[in-house]
């Protein structure tokens, strides 16, 4: 698992997992739980993949809420039927207190660690 946080406001930007393949012989590609992959996919290395014109559902977390966003809708908005809470008019889900407390503890631990900057990677060639 790898997580990326915004250092200014401590919000989770990306959480991704890498699992072993079905046969257990090699690592699969990254699976994104929170956030999204911004680099274009390479058909030669990926093989068969879903259409790029399909809608994409992305989970984005803020400090107090879980949010879901939909990207790449191929048809006009009138085509879709989205139901939301009439009282709140939102698709945001408030995080439980236990999750917020756990994330505060994690942030306290992260502050003890040195954050790496872009390009600040220990790369020892073999």
UniProtKB/TrEMBL annotation:
Family affiliation: Belongs to the DPCD family.
InterPro entries in UniProt: DPCD
Domain of life: Eukaryota
Name of the protein: Protein DPCD
């Amino acid at each position: 698992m790898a997580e990326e946080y915004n250092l200014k406001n401590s919000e989770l930007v990306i959480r991704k997992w890498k699992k072993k393949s079905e046969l257990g012989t090699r690592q699969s590609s990254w699976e994104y739980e929170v956030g999204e992959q911004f680099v274009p996919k390479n058909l030669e290395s990926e093989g068969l993949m879903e259409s790029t014109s399909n809608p994409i559902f992305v989970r984005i977390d803020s400090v107090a809420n879980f949010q879901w966003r939909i990207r790449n809708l191929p048809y006009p908005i009138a085509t879709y039927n989205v139901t939301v809470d009439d009282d709140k008019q939102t698709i945001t889900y408030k995080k439980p207190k236990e999750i917020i407390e756990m994330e505060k503890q994690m942030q306290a631990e992260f502050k003890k660690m040195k954050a790496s900057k872009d390009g600040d990677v220990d790369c020892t060639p073999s």
